[in-house]
Design brief:
alpha+beta, 350 residues, 26% helix, 27 strands, 9 helices, 9-stranded antiparallel beta sheet
């Protein structure tokens, strides 16, 4: 399996796609204003080729593309793209579309993945897709785009998730999650929540906003940015999944990920993220040997943190030096059966 990409900072699809010929699948990332036009242009350039498009900041190689368009072509892969509509009401109604895509590609464990862009409703979506993916041991990687619509196979859909099933015809596909935070070791219990609205109301029986401030010794004004250094973590078995704090709402905390009553929580702190990135690359190398490409979703908060610390340029250079690397900056990430925050998720292939 191979990956080629092109970037146009001015938003010219023909410029971005100039080096991509006869791909087996296409993924593109564009701006909100250009989604419809670029959907039509991609369909015209690559007729009949499965395609998935979303809105957001993108990157390819060492370059960031904040307002233009990035086109990613995938080769030596069996691919099928489709859409889950009615996302906010009943996504399970359309699960047959994923079943058909899995059958068409012959996807299976070890050499396949499902990559998605969604407009929201992540928790229910991830659960829905894994009704089929988990049984076949096919990982889900993707994220939330910065828009209310996505593009699939030449059409634009509101309130929807677009997905593309990929089966590597020449080697493996492996999925990875990178967490640049470490636990402080203290554990707490979410004792009152509003999962639908992503509200954490009480922790260990105390108002969540005051609890968070007291634990970290910060003021209410610090809360919205403190998540860069100290997100919550939800402990699930041997894994910890990050929960970003959005803002104070009354005495509660509004979060970017659903929290449920009786979830076991911890407060995280920033790790040596340069070493964490190297550990991820070492793991990918160990699993795959020679790597031909990496397709990733990086959380917006990671992107901003790396920018703030003047590390973003080096990060992108290191990732691309390791293997042809491209992807999107998401506002929420998917990793197998979990919707998470402040994380990098990716597929790597050879």
């Amino acid at each position: 399996m191979r990956q080629l990409f092109g970037l146009s900072m001015s938003g010219n699809v023909h410029e971005a796609a100039a080096g991509i010929s006869s791909p087996d699948a296409v993924i593109f990332i564009t701006s909100k204003d250009n989604l419809l036009q670029h959907t039509d242009e991609i369909a015209g350039l690559f007729p009949g080729v499965p395609s998935l498009g979303g809105v957001g900041i993108s990157y390819g190689g060492p370059k960031v593309n904040e307002k233009g368009v990035t086109v990613i072509g995938l080769f030596d892969v069996s691919a099928a793209a489709d859409v889950i509509t009615d996302l906010s009401t009943m996504p399970v109604k359309h699960i047959g579309r994923l079943e058909a895509a899995l059958e068409k590609t012959g996807a299976g464990a070890g050499n396949s993945a499902c990559f998605d862009f969604t407009t929201g409703n992540d928790g229910q979506l991830v659960t829905t897709l894994n009704l089929l993916l988990d049984k076949k041991k096919i990982p889900l990687i993707g994220g939330t785009i910065d828009n209310t619509a996505i593009s699939v196979n030449g059409r634009v859909y509101e309130d929807a998730c677009g997905f593309i099933v990929l089966k590597n015809l020449t080697g493996k596909i492996c999925a990875y999650k990178e967490n640049i935070y470490k636990t402080t070791g203290r554990r707490f219990l979410a004792t009152k929540t509003d999962p639908k609205n992503k509200i954490l109301a009480e922790v260990d029986g105390k108002p969540a906003a005051k609890f968070y401030q007291d634990e970290l010794g910060i003021t209410a004004a610090d809360v919205a940015t403190q998540t860069f250094k100290n997100p919550f973590g939800r402990i699930y078995g041997d894994e910890t999944y990050l929960i970003s704090v959005k803002e104070i709402t009354g005495n509660s905390l509004s979060c970017y990920k659903q929290v449920n009553d009786m979830d076991i929580l911890t407060i995280m702190e920033l790790d040596d993220y340069k070493q964490v990135v190297q550990n991820t690359l070492d793991k990918i190398s160990s699993d795959l040997g020679k790597v031909s490409g990496i397709l990733s979703v990086n959380c917006l908060f990671r992107y901003l943190l790396f920018q703030q610390d003047h590390y973003l340029d080096q990060y992108l250079k290191d990732m691309n030096r390791f293997g042809n690397h491209a992807g999107i900056v998401g506002v929420g990430e998917h990793y197998c059966k979990q919707h998470i925050n402040q994380t990098m998720t990716c597929i790597a292939f050879n």
